Amino acid sequence: MAAEFQATRPRIDRTEVLDALLTSVFVLNARLQVIYLNAAAQTLVGFGPNQALGRPIVELMRGAESLLPLFGRALAGGEGVVQREFAWPGPAGLDRILDCAVTEVSIGNDARLLLEIEDITQHRRLTRETALLAQLDGSRLMVRQLAHEIKNPRGGLRGAAQLLERELLDPALREYTRVIISEADRLTNLLDSMLGPHRPPAKQTLNVHEMLDRVYHLLRSEAAPGVTVDRDYDPSLPPISVDPNHIIQAMLNLGRNALQALSASVTPSARLVLRTRAATNVNVGSKRHRLVASIQFEDNGPGVPPEIRDTIFYPLVSGRADGTGLGLGLAQDLVSRHGGLIEFDSVPGRTIFTLSLPMDSV
Question: Which CATH class is domain 2-119?
Answer without folding.
Answer: alpha beta
